[in-house]
Amino acid sequence: MFRFYGLSLLIIAIDQISKWLVTKYMEIGERIPVIDSFLLLTSHRNQGAAWGILQGQMLFFYIITVLIVGFLIYYMQTQGKNSRWSAVAIALLLAGAIGNFIDRLFRKEVVDFVDVYIGSYNYPIFNVADASLTIGVILFLIATFIEDKRQKETEQP
Ligand SMILES: CCC[C@@H]1OC(=O)[C@@H](C)C[C@H](C)CCCCC(=O)CCC[C@@H](CC)/C=C/C=C(\COC)CC[C@@H](O)[C@@H](O)C[C@H](O)CNC1=O
């Protein structure tokens, strides 16, 4: 079970190294095309949450993140034991929440750089921590759904 915390640490390391590289080697607003008109590296900062909501509400973000991390660790200790997928989902969510928390603590803003165009729609620029959170949410929903299904099957005679 502790190896899942290792997964979180690995993702946090990747997140922080990628953000460090962006802040060190790119100017804010600088764009580097990776896959033309689909994927670019754009150095961006966000003092809010997804889609830039709640700009500058750092105290709110600290409180919310501590609550989320507390809940996830509790959930890892209880649910994480009996379902590998839940443990992986929690590890991803933990990594994402902590990754952005480190930015909010030391930079007072979050470093974003993954700039994706889906057709003409420009998805909000995000980072490794956001991707980990989003994948973690999806996995968490799937794992919870499968868990419920399995429990119902065992209960029925
Ligand atoms: C991913 C959650 C956002 C992340 O939440 C966090 O840190 C958590 C741990 C703490 C928040 C204060 C609390 C959650 C607020 C809920 C929320 O926001 C609803 C989100 C839904 C979500 C489905 C799960 C959509 C996805 C969006 C985006 C990511 O797409 C991959 C766009 C990211 C860009 O706007 C980028 O500028 C954001 C910047 O990096 C700061 N990131 C955050 O605030």
Topology:
Layout: H1 2-25, E1 31-35, E2 39-46, H2 58-78, H3 84-106, E3 110-118, E4 121-122, H4 128-155
Antiparallel strand pairs: 1-2, 2-3, 3-4
Helix pairs in contact: 1-3, 2-3, 3-4
Membrane topology: Multi-pass membrane protein
Organism: Salimicrobium album
Family: Belongs to the peptidase A8 family.
Structure characterization notes:
The chain has 157 residues and is an alpha+beta fold. It has helices at residues 2-25, 58-78, 84-106, 128-155, and strands at residues 31-35, 39-46, 110-118, 121-122. It is 61% helix and 15% strand. A four-stranded antiparallel β-sheet has the order 1-2-3-4. Strand 3 (110-118) and strand 4 (121-122) form a beta hairpin. The protein is globular. Myxovirescin A is lined by residues 46, 49-51, 61, 64-65, 68, 97, 100, 110, 112, 124-127, 130-131, 133-134, 137. Its EC number is 3.4.23.36. It is an enzyme of class 3 (hydrolase).
Entry summary:
With 157 residues, the protein is α+β, with helices and mostly antiparallel strands. The chain has helices at 2-25, 58-78, 84-106, 128-155, and strands at residues 31-35, 39-46, 110-118, 121-122. Myxovirescin A (KNH) binds next to helix 2, helix 3, strand 3 and helix 4.
